[in-house]
Sequence to fold (180 residues):
Amino acid sequence: MSNDPSLSSGIRDEQTVTPEGKPVATTIDGVKVRSTPHHVDHRGTVFEMFEGVGDYWDEPVVYAYQFSVRPHQMKGWGLHERKADRYTIISGEVLLFLYDAREDSPTHGVSMKLVLSDRGVRQVTMPPYVWHLSVNVGSVDAHLVNFPTEVYHHESPDRLLLPWDSPDIPVDVSSHLPKF
Fold:
């Protein structure tokens, strides 16, 4: 046993996953995440983004677009009133914050964060009325594809926006940002 003063100042780490690797954090009702089928051989890699409507893809693909987040930048907070966003990360690493603003949801007021990466969770579905904010925590552009459940209406976008540090969303984003 050591009497070093740093030991009394240390903060005990908290459990983040079960022994099976499942997160222990509360998740928002209706948010779905998954690691995609990923195939690797001597020629390179392939990962499946859409295998047809099924367990994960419970609504047809009707529209798709690619977007990026530059290193050390963020996009959000954003929310849709009608459509769900279905992100697939292609490259990079994004810290994604979510906040459930649905008053009739069993997880109303719950926030969650997850990392989207080619080494783990690669896809996430966010239902309507769930705020989301994407932070690129890497040193290269993060590239994502969105397969929203509704086409984009240029004349009347289905999107509400708030600043990243809005007091209306009780998430302290700054405490999670990397120190560059």
Remarks:
- The radius of gyration is 18 Å.
- The mean pLDDT is 91.
- The longest helix spans residues 5-9.
- The CA atoms of residues 100 and 130 lie 5 Å apart.
